[in-house]
Amino acid sequence: MTLPDPGTWGAIIAITAMAAATYLCRISGVALMSIIPLTPHVRRGLAALPGSIVVATVLPLIERLGAAAAIALLAAIGTMILRRSELLALLVGMAAISGLRALGF
Amino acid sequence: MSADPNMQPVASEAPITAAGMMLGLRKVAVLVPGIIVFAVAFGAAAAAKGLSFFETMLMSGFVYAGVAQLVSLELWRPEWSWGAIAGIAVVTATVNARMVLQGASLQPWFAKYPKILNAFHLFFFTDANWLIGTRYRAEGGRDLGVLIGAGLTLWLVWIVATGGGYMLGALVSDPRRYGIDLVMPIFFAAMIVPLWRGKRGMVPWVVAGLVALVTARLVDGYAFIIVGSLAGAITGAFRDDAA
User: Fold this and answer.
1) How high is the pLDDT of residue B1?
2) Cβ–Cβ of B85/A51 closer than 8 Å?
3) Neighbours of B72 (CB within 10 A)
4) Could you report how far apart the first and last alpha carbons of chain A are, in Å?
5) So where are chain B's domains?
6) Of A26, A35, A84, which to mutate for an interface test with B (greatest number of B Cβ within 10 Å)?
7) Closest Cα partner for B109 from A85, A49, A20, A54?
8) Which of A19, A57, A72 sits opposite B62 (nearest CB)?
9) What's the rounded mean pLDDT across residues B148-157?
10) How crowded is the C-beta side of A11, counted as CA atoms within 13 Å?
11) pLDDT category, B40, cuts 50, 70, 90?
């Protein structure tokens, strides 16, 4: 038995498949951790996870996006240390990157 | 993660309040301008790629994952085979794989709530939600309403702005000029400060960062996030002192 051709429904089926894949990603971490017992090791691993995710996301992006992006992100981190305001950090970071890019960096 | 000793005992172990939802709305407001431009850019790009208005809105409403949606446009085609559909699903899952770890890190919080409620609010779970929720929890907050308020707000903004972008077309032709492509990276970088736990907690971060850098060099796409994060978590798990 072969599947009928997706035909005119192809785009809708593709979007449905994307939605299903994304929802599975959203729930599977939570579902998985509800069956893994919280031993001290797992607990420490979970405690280290948020910072690890942040660093693992940001560092390669800096390398990919270039020096101007690195300066903008450092400016945002510096703002955050001084003021603890995400809004201000975002504004400073975006001002830095817009300015640097306008100057041709 | 230890409980904040200053926190008052709450009536319920698993609170969800309207006040919490309003707090979530306020916390996410910072990101709304950036998300609007991102969604407008996606809507415009989808129109240019030949998606119908209905398909574009369907994707923003049900997939609701900015980077994955933009990447999918690169793979979009006028005719679909089952192979192409499977391919786009796999690419979507790869781009969104970071959500698995983000969800896992917040599971101890969600565990106190009914499964059906978690299945519902996780539909709205995004990078922004994870960052807001992680910071709020680290400060001793326990109200799930914060995550639901932030998630619903962002979802509605995302959908409306996608529609606007589709109509307006190429108005935001170059989001890079305004640094829109850096909104989430900046927000991620800023999170390092409230997550900082002193030098002891740094070792897993350094491992996560180095492994992510190496992975990014070797593998295309976004695998570096999940490989680096796992390396950091495993390092944290096997260190003698609690991070």
Assistant:
1) 41
2) no
3) 24
4) 58
5) 18-196, 197-243
6) A26
7) A49
8) A19
9) 96
10) 18
11) confident
Q: Could you report the per-residue pLDDT of B73-119, keeping only the tens digit for each? A: 888 988 899 988 998 998 899 889 889 999 999 999 999 999 999 99
| The two three-digit tokens of residue B197, written as one number | 């736990």
Instruction: Give the separation between CA B171 and CA B163, rounded to whole angstroms.
Output: 13
Residues of B in contact with A90 (CB under 8 A): 30-31, 34, 183, 186-187, 190
Q: Across all residues in chain B, what is the average pLDDT?
A: 86
User: By the 8 A CB rule, do B226 and B101 touch?
Assistant: yes
- Is some CB atom of chain A closer than 8 A to the CB atom of B46? no
Residues of B in Cβ contact (< 8 Å) with A91 = none
First to last CA, chain B: 9
Any idea what the Cα angle at residue B45 is, between residues B40 and B48, rounded to 5°? Answer: 130
B134 lies within 8 A of chain A by CB:
yes
Q: What ipTM, to 2 d.p.? A: 0.81
Residue B38 near residue B180, CB atoms below 8 Å: yes
For residue A87, the chain B residue with the least C-alpha distance is B30
Average pLDDT value for residue range B222-227:
86
pLDDT digits (tens, 9 = 90+) for A33-79: 989 887 888 888 888 888 898 899 889 888 888 899 999 999 999 99
Alpha-carbon span B98 to B127, nearest angstrom: 9
